[in-house]
Amino acid sequence: MSRISAYERFRERLFAGEIEPGSFVTQRELAELGGVSLGSAREAIQKLEHDSLLRVHPQRGIQVADVTIKFIREAFQLRSMVEVTAVKDYCRDGQDKARATLADTRAILSKAESDTSPAVLGDAVDVDWRFHDEVVSAMNNSLVEELYQINAVRLRLIRTNIRLRADRVLGALGEHIAILEACASGDVADAREKLSEHLTVAMRRSMEGM
To answer: Which end of the chain has fewer CB atoms at under 10 Å, N or C?
Structure first.
């Protein structure tokens, strides 16, 4: 079992809600939960700590990240710094992608307005993530991409602790459509303004959902 494989196992169990945020666990408990050796668990713990999903406290144990107001605020502040900067490149170089994602977003929104089953809402969330990933990728900056992916793990943990509600998903998709329309037309100023507003609202929704 490689370090990366063990890391993925722990992370998926964390996202599945099998580990309580803020709780303390031992290396052995994490190894048993992930079905890995203690050696693999120790290596995975280093990466999980690097991603701010765990924190090792000497003499106390290993604490799972707690989704607090501060945790949410910091994750969204970083997200806003990266994405509001990156959307300029998306408007300039990613207009074809923006048009395709706009069409898919409209389609899933139309479907979700009459069908709020978990499967449809899950598809809507996938389209949501796709847009944000495309915006950051437009910068073509590997260092920014790495930072974004680390923060995306934190954002996913935040979402794990918030019940998936149809009204929130529909609201977010509507906001995406407004941003994508600006991106597809190459209007950088409008895209930045609408994206900044969207991320502010998303942060508030996350805080209210705690």
So the answer is: C
